[in-house]
Amino acid sequence: MARILECVPNFSEGRDKEKVEEIVNEIRTTEGVKLLDYSSDETHNRSVVTFVGEPKAVIEAAFKAAKKAGEVIDMTTHEGGHPRMGAMDVCPLIPINEVTMEEAVELSKQLGERIGEELGISVYLYEKSATKPERENLAVVRKGQYEGMAEKLKTPGWEPDFGPIELNKKSGVSAVGARMPLVAYNVNLATDNVEIAKAIAKKIRAKGGGFAYCKAMGLLLEDKNLAQVSMNLVDYTHTSVYHAFEFVKREAARYGVNVVNSEVIGLVPMNALIDAAKWYLQIDDFSTNQVLETRLHD
Amino acid sequence: MARILECVPNFSEGRDKEKVEEIVNEIRTTEGVKLLDYSSDETHNRSVVTFVGEPKAVIEAAFKAAKKAGEVIDMTTHEGGHPRMGAMDVCPLIPINEVTMEEAVELSKQLGERIGEELGISVYLYEKSATKPERENLAVVRKGQYEGMAEKLKTPGWEPDFGPIELNKKSGVSAVGARMPLVAYNVNLATDNVEIAKAIAKKIRAKGGGFAYCKAMGLLLEDKNLAQVSMNLVDYTHTSVYHAFEFVKREAARYGVNVVNSEVIGLVPMNALIDAAKWYLQIDDFSTNQVLETRLHD
Q: What global pTM score does this model have?
């Protein structure tokens, strides 16, 4: 399989479909990338685009989309329910296949530099690309939102990583950074007692002393009357799907509760599931190249 | 992911590299197929080619290769250690993705008909494509080998499915048919007692009353001094990798022996492993479309 980088930029336009199409078309027409999905939220006045491809092509497409967003979106008049600070508000780069996190970080810096220098838009590097610990968390980086950015950019310690220290009023500020793919994974319990799901969620997540790359909450599935442990695995290569499953199963047993089933929501990297098969089947030596489907498009 | 058919034709030439290249080039140059592997055995005087692609393109490539094999191979002078009856000796078609077995059978008949009518080579349909029960097993179809085919083709009940009843002396006879992909799967036991592996192999295979689509034997891995249950799962959608693993593990426990690890040999369809992940993780609803990598080449 080819080298694959995923990109999921968020744009501060979710109401004017023509403008969204103009931005998406920049991605759609870039050679070497494939648009997987895009959706707009009118309340948030925001659109999320998912695309993948050869790393260099992905960076080119992301840059072209950032440029177009800067042209068609005017942040001085933007309003919406979701926190935001710029036209291309945030642009995560996600290594999927044969791309290391180090390469993704390097690519995010190349993208950030182009946005800063060629478009004159201030850029903060975040997540794995952050140049300071306090810039890792997007919520912290975006704090103050668009309206507070003119001042924030000039605050000592919050100088942008690329681009002008003066706010680009029309386009605002962009966060660019590399992160792992997120796996949305839920385990359903054979009980309607949501307190058990909540107790397990508190134990499995990093905050509670559980797995380092796991966020979790307990909730009740009203339609099925089942309690669910709902998780986000933010780095499945370190906190795996099967360890999360086995932890929930064991913890539920302590309450005398069985696991009904589990579910993966949305897209998942193939290796997150292949890794589970390898672990349960005790397969030591296996290369992803042995998966027939990966050989189709070398 | 696109519709994918796999094809693994065997040709009766393993010594003259130029002739092998001429045959392989017919496949390599066909639009819409991808050559995955090919290898020649001088002792057997035989070559095996593996390629995949869009079903129609695969049939086209297989036909072109059969035609070229008919041109460059002369069966009247062929000798080698492996049973054979024709220039393109056997051509299995294997559904991999979004192709049903019924479609693969239909495609095998289209291919067989073209070989019979356009090339004047007699064809027996075998495996899932067999028109009579006794033609399912390739060894039975090929019995008598090339030297016995002139007579076999005229024997009542052994008339060819396509092509002439008179033997094409230069090209012989071809077997064409659809079958499931084969998964070569081994489980290694924490013992050097090969008798335990042999006993388990006898129990797990169809012949011994075990799984219907499992062939198995027990052997000793000399370098590791471990007994191994070596299996061929000839239809993983019915006899799954995880059931085979769990059966061997349980049976070994009856002898007080643990499983050290297991191994998949060579190429394996993605779903053979995804199915294992789903079973162990108790995932009820999951579409292969959720695997990110399958979305890259829709």
A: 0.83
